[in-house]
Amino acid sequence: MLAKKSSKPRHGYSNTNSSSNASGDNSDVSDLEFKDCYLAYESYAAVAKRNNQFVNIRWSDLQRAQSTTEVKKLLAALSIKRHITRDGEALELAALELCFEFLTFDELQRTAQVCTALHNIITTSKILLTGLYSRTWRNEMLPRVYIALPYRDQLQLCTARRSDTIYELSTRGAVSVLSNGNCCVLNNSMLRNFDKGAVDSIRGTKRLPDLACARALHKSIMYFEASLKGCGSVGLVSISDVATRNAYGFGSGEHVGWKGISYAYHGNDGDFVFNDGTKPYGGEWRAFGPSWGRVLTRPDYKNKDMCTVGCGLDANNRQIFFTLNGEMVGMAPVMALPGDYAAAVSLHAFGDQAVLNAGAAPFVFDIEAFCASP
Question: Which residues form the SPRY domain (predicted)?
């Protein structure tokens, strides 16, 4: 893209972007001249290649570079083929868009308020916000339907995901917040009567929020994942129903689906267990998917890896779905009753543990692609 320092005369944005400021605000951006923009891009290329000195480099060289961690993260922001110019805009504007990929979300928002020229770069870009989302909450680029969204919806995509990272839990187990924002719960509390076993219940204190990627597409889909070591049940419990809300969470030794209005995927046999509030204790059991997890006290237990179970609800059609280790298991055979639902996990044995992710970290299952599907 830029092979060497240009001999082109120095000029600012005001000479190349007629839509910047009709009221004579060209002085806002004239301080940043062509030479400065060129050096910014040259620095960008140097960082991407991790060279110790400036070299002649084109953007296409970066795509052919050796596969390194830094380059992979950078290329995750690529959604479509790069163009040197866009609608005849100045080269330095396109270079700035590349540089802006290093900014955080808050820095991007502040930069957009500097002047009209920078605001136009950020709000018309299709890769800045989607690339930022991908680098933070995914291991690959977003599906194209998100890249085609207008700036307002892309803004919703990022802001809503950030607000979803805090999800408080009710449980008597030991809770610790991991560095990525997920919550780890260990079933180790002695505040119980072991005559009925050592099952420990975990319940969200509030409604599981609609996914940011769903809200950006004007849908209402909620989802969470629980990575378990041991065995248990994962699902949703109603918090609109007082009896159900009190049946799960701190002090409860019930598996999800046994009581109240609740729906769960059980690991010991792979059954879907549910109760609509009128069924007897224990709920109704139906064959559903593969079993998962093991009871830690069994002598044949050898697999120490966690298995990740996901549970979601499409509120528009009240359809519950489950995933296992990043793969779709299927839709529940019954629809959820109307109301608000919280994430729920029950750990079966003393010493079992679960890591709950309500959006603080990337999901194992490609939930963005699922939400984008018809």
Answer: 223-359
Provide the percentage of residues in the chain whose pLDDT is more than 70.
Answer: 71
pLDDT at 348 over 50: yes
We report the CATH number of the domain holding residue 213 as 2.60.120.920
Q: Is the pLDDT of residue 11 over 80?
A: no
State whether the Cα torsion 295-353-280-313 is positive or negative.
negative
Residues ≥6 apart with Cβ < 8 Å to 248? 170, 201, 203, 237, 254, 256, 259, 260, 262, 344, 346
Q: What is the mean pLDDT of residues 21-50?
A: 41
Query: Does residue 216 lie in a domain region?
Result: yes
CB 168 within 8 A of CB 342: no
- Rounded alpha-carbon distances, angstroms, from residue 83 to 59, 97, 199, 202: 10, 11, 58, 50
DSSP-derived 3-state class of residue 96: helix
Residue showing tokens 């179970």: 309
Q: How far apart are CA 1 and CA 9, in angstroms?
A: 18
Mean pLDDT of 264-281: 95
- End-of-domain residue from the set 134, 162, 190: 162
pLDDT in tens, 119-160: 988 999 988 999 999 988 987 889 999 999 999 999 999 998
